[in-house]
Amino acid sequence: MKKLYSLLFLFLLCGSIKAQTINLPANGNLADTISKLTAGTYVINLPAGSTYAGPGVTITVPLNVNLTINGPADGVKPIIQYKLFDVTDNTSTAISFNNVELTCGTGTSDQYLFNFGTARICTMTKIEFKNCVIRDFLRSVVRSQATTQVINEVIFDNCIIKNIGIQDAQNYALINGAGEIKKITIKNSTLTNMVKGFIDLKNVGADEINILDCTFNNNIVDTRSFINLQSSITKTALALNVTNTIFGSSKQTANGVTGINNLATTLVITQTVTNSFKTSDWILVSGDFNNLTAYSGASTALFTDPATGVFTFLDAGFAGKTTAGDPRWRSATTDIRPIENTKRIRVLSHAIEVDAEIAEISLYDLQGRLLKRAVGSQISTEELHSGLYIVSVFSEGKRFTTKFVKR
In angstroms, what CA-CA distances link 343 with 264, 347, 380, 391? Predict the structure, then answer.
């Protein structure tokens, strides 16, 4: 009997932590669905091409709900557009977004994605964005406002992030933290037009910031900082790790942009910077990262078309072309061209064909949104409208990327 009770306990324990799956239809109400969840772990799947929006609507995740919101790996990413996400007091929770497009709400006070008010008491074990497009937020994507808020880790992985902090006369970075954010990791991502900053921390600070395999361009206006560490920070040590990353143009240079602005007199920053580069128009008055390799030209000489968000390499002689920046833009061989056919990728009338029996072939629009993916030696382009696209092929441990024209 004792053994039976033990088995029953294990069964109940395992059952209590198993994620419950909700397949929300395109006409479903995401905010209402989340509001009705009870403590537990949930995965909400959204269909391709759907839009979930609510001007002025705050989505408050209930107490102790761990939540993952998924879009499909293929097809047009579902769009999520609300006033903001919040959590319940005294919660301990993780929230993840995968394969979705997140954009600022259209209500008169819609400005953030996450914004925890000054009275909020919470512990976030993780806030994660994976394979997402994050765009057009007036202020911050993640903001905490009090020391009663602890975030163990914020993760951006394989994301396109653009147009952040675009509200005039306001100074909000991608991440604004007044509470403790123990670890910040951004990897395999492209970030453009972060107007007022990347990270801005005060009161407590962070233990670790990791910038891995990223491409930055056209970021930070005059008098602002890429990383701003305010004088009120109480932590005394910060590990700053930068690997395989490219820093392209500053947004403005007339009155001075700062790289790392450490105003906390007792905070010691330990930088580890490897295989990372800066273009000639990454112009700072102070606070540059240690050990960046200077590229001789501007971002327009290095990248194919930075104005439209295409960061494949125009300069075939760039030393980091196979190892640095967001991997989606890297050149794995010297035979990649910025348009049409290559020795390894051929553009047919209604398909892309590659010189490999088994390859992962991905098609993107110029904003970096995944349109479709296939495994094999060919992928159909029949359903695409005429225009310019990006194809990325992964085969035998190497990635080949180029633009192509669908006629």
Answer: 54, 11, 19, 14
Nearest to residue 126, comparing CAs of 153, 147, 148?
A: 153
Nearest Cα to Cα of residue 177 among 136, 156, 158, 149: 149
What is the per-residue pLDDT for 8? Answer: 43
Burial class (CB in 10 A: 0-12, 13-18, 19+), 104: buried
Residues 43 and 68: beta-carbon distance below 8 Å: yes
Considering the chain, tell me which residue range(s) the CATH 2.160.20 domain(s) occupy.
19-300
Based on C-alpha coordinates, what's the Rg of the chain? 22
Indicate where the chain has its CATH 2.60.40.3080 domain(s).
337-406
Q: What confidence tens digit (pLDDT) does each residue in 320-377 have?
A: 998 999 988 887 533 333 334 454 677 777 788 888 777 888 888 877 778 888 888 8
Q: How many angstroms separate the CA atoms of 310 and 364, rounded? A: 11
Quickly state the pLDDT bin for 168 (edges 50, 70, 90).
Answer: confident
pLDDT digits (tens, 9 = 90+) for 76-93: 899 999 999 999 999 999
Indicate the residue type of 44: I
Residue 7's pLDDT band (boundaries 50, 70, 90)? very low
DSSP bridge partners of 346 = 353
- Provide the phi-psi class of 343: left if phi over 0, else alpha when psi is between -120 and 50, else beta: alpha
Q: Does domain 337-406 match CATH 2.60.40.3080?
A: yes
State pTM to two decimals.
0.82
Residue with tokens 């194919």: 304
Give 378's strand partners.
Answer: 353
The answer to whether domain 19-300 has CATH 2.160.20 is yes
> Which of these, 127, 125, 126, 198, lies nearest to 161 by C-alpha position?
198
Predicted confidence at residue 141, as pLDDT, reads: 98
* Count of CB atoms situated within 10 Å of the CB of 384: 15
**Cβ-contact 60, 35 below 8 angstroms:** yes
pLDDT at 87: 97
Segment holding 337, helix H or strand E: none
